[in-house]
Amino acid sequence: MIRTRFAPSPTGYLHVGGARTALFSWAYARKHGGRFILRIEDTDLERSTEASTQAILDGMRWLELDWDEGPFYQMQRLPRYEEIAERLLRDGKAYRCYCTRAELESMREAQRARGEKPRYDGRWRDSRAQPPSGVKPVIRFKNPLDGEVTFQDLVKGPITISNTELDDLVLLREDGVPTYNFGVVVDDLDMNITHVIRGDDHVNNTPRQVNIFRALEADLPQFAHVPMILGPDGERLSKRHGAVSVMQYQEDGYLPQALTNYLARLGWSHGNEEVFASAAFVEWFDLAHVSRSAAQFNPEKLRWLNQQYMKQRPNADLAAQVAGRIERDGGRLASGPDLAAVVTLFKERSETLNELAEQAMMFYGQAQATSEQIEQNVTAEMRPALAELAEKFSTIGDWSPDSVMGAIHTVLEKHKLKLPKLAVPLRVIVFGRTQTPNLGPVLALAGKKRVLERLQAQLSA
Question: Does the N-terminal peptide bond of residue 71 adopt cis geometry, omega within 30 degrees of 0?
């Protein structure tokens, strides 16, 4: 059975790069009827936090990337790492190193001065020296001294690196906490991971891990390193490009299905398909169509995609998601029309839920026009027409878009005005803004009472 995993470090939020890796791993497992495992690699004791762990779990749940096993935490597995390290010691494939931090830094400085690549020189590898007192050792791996490491990357193809490029990496630190390269190997073995799908910033770690797998006489998982994500300017993705927490996208009014769809298309494609559900993505996904080159993050494309998903959503569903945003910004839903009806007016012209909420506020907020707006638009020239319109509105029994527009057209004809001439001051008075969707529907939704009250209050001012 295929078993994949997502193994983030809880040293920050779940960002779009990590979310895409999780998405690819999840989809691969789902397509093949396998299992998707969530593992929290929390061995960076200085930077790992509970808040970051929670942010990762929240982000995964919001994106609907459900896991089958876990979350597993590395800090709860320390005895297991020690057990495997001791086994490698017994087999002569690892050794204790007593170098102090000062000695290691002195070693690196001397190597840099000679123009060499800084690396551990193996001085304790086969040493028979008496261990110094008071120094707690690390356990280092005996990396092969010659030969090559070759593995078949399912995205990048065959990758080969000489063992002379690798030094004897630390397996267990002085405090018994595993290093990244050792912890992931033990975990992937214990969890029977068959496919390691991760960012290509890990390519250089893989030969080290391959050597540890082989030292443990274990079968290798298959590796697939997906390309990194760049900003629109071709630079490494950062906060200014949108590399913010996945949950920030929720806060900003994006639908999880839209973000998932967008991430799926970053570095992978299925023909010319742009808008597709997760079920279709799972059906189509394969590693053969993951690009070898970096993907570019385009915020405008994401906004467009989000708009497509919003258009597809039932109005009642969008209303439920927008309601809390309106109330958070001071709107009073009880004082306005049915929110689903308002959503109908605005969803075609909104790219995010936040934009939709902002547009809808004209029905639920105070929506008072500024003195400048009144001065510019509610002129002495227009007051007679507005007064007559208020009189016409007061006689309407069946308040509807058609009856409202009928009254407006009667006044326009009498005063020989074009619609915009009357519509703009009317919008300013009733809604506090110069632009709205079609006048008939918005005035009908606002209700006769509110429209008349605002018109009469302004005309009597």
Answer: yes
* Strand, coil or helix: 18: helix
The contacts of residue 142 (CB under 8 Å, 6+ apart) are: 92, 93, 94, 95, 125, 168, 215
Q: Reply yes or no on whether 239 is catalytic.
A: yes
- Phi/psi of residue 197, nearest 5 degrees: -110, 120
Residue 63 CB-half CA count within 13 A: 31
Report the alpha-carbon angle 251-254-255, nearest 5: 120
DSSP run (H or E) holding 214: helix 206-215
Rg, Å, the chain Cα set: 32
* Structure token pair of residue 230: 């760049």
Q: For 326-337, what is each residue's pLDDT tens digit?
A: 999 998 999 899
Q: Which of 136, 239, 311, 414 is catalytic?
A: 239
CATH (residue range 79-172): 3.90.800.10
Whether CATH 3.40.50.620 fits 1-74+227-312: yes
In this prediction, residue 366 carries a pLDDT of 73
DSSP letters of 381-441?
TTHHHHHHHHHHHHT-SS-SHHHHHHHHHHHHHHHT--HHHHHHHHHHHHHSSS--S-HHH
Chain center to CA of 389 = 50
> Residue 239's pLDDT is what?
63
151 in Cβ contact with 206 (< 8 Å)? yes
Rounded CA-CA distance 362/342 in Å is: 10
Pick the CATH number of 371-459 from 1.10.10.60, 3.50.50.60, 1.10.10.350, 1.10.150.290: 1.10.10.350
Measured CA to CA, the distance from residue 171 to residue 183 in angstroms comes to 8
Low-confidence ranges of the chain (pLDDT < 50): none
* Rounded Cα gap, residues 197 and 265, in angstroms: 16
| Per-residue pLDDT at 243 | 59
pLDDT digits (tens, 9 = 90+) for 151-191: 999 999 999 999 999 999 999 999 999 999 999 999 999 99
For every residue of 226-247, DSSP letters joined together read EPPEE-TTSSBP-GGGT---HH
Match 């110069």 to its residue by tokens: 434
CA distance 266 to 291: 9
CA distances from 317 to 123, 312, 322, 334, 341 (A): 66, 10, 9, 18, 12
